Amino acid sequence: MNGAYILVMKLNSNKNIRVGSLGKLEFKKGFYCYVGSAIGRTTIENRCKRHLIKNKKMKWHIDYLRKEVEIVNIFAIPSRRKIECKIARKILKKADSFIPKFGSSDCNCKSHLFYFKNKKSLSKLSPIFSKGIQIY
Fold first, then answer.
1. Which of 3, 26, 90, 124 could tie 79 with a disulfide, CB 3.0–4.6 Å?
2. Could you tell me the CA-to-CA distances from 4 to 13, 30, 62, 112, 117 in Å, in that order?
3. Which domain holds residue 111?
4. What CA–CA distance (Å, rounded) separates 97 from 51?
5. Domain count of the chain?
6. pLDDT digits (tens, 9 = 90+) for 105-118
7. What is the pLDDT of residue 101?
8. What pairs with residue 134 in β-bridges?
9. In whole angstroms, what is the distance from residue 131 CA to residue 57 CA?
10. Is 36 exposed, middle or buried (0-12, 13-18, 19+ CB in 10 A)?
């Protein structure tokens, strides 16, 4: 299956984390949603299996954060088109904050990583999650 996916992650305490070319960033305790895609030969299932592994070769911004967070859910949104930026723009409107340029070095989005301070705040994404298939 190709398309986009949303990783929902929880960070249990405030942390400063070095994120590749972005340098050292401050992450607040709370929930983070990362929007990614799998188009072409890579499937959503294979991409998400890679995200479930904590210790791996650092390739993308999310790999650095992944070492520090717990994955709570993964939602897949099947599509033959590249829709991750459209989803990221929708999540940006509901997020408490975002990490500038995270995961969006190949597009014009402000970010593909969004911060939600608690479960109540995260629940604003229910309409977006309901359009996807929960795969984790």
1. 3
2. 28, 23, 15, 12, 24
3. 3-134
4. 22
5. 1
6. 889 999 999 999 99
7. 95
8. 75
9. 32
10. buried
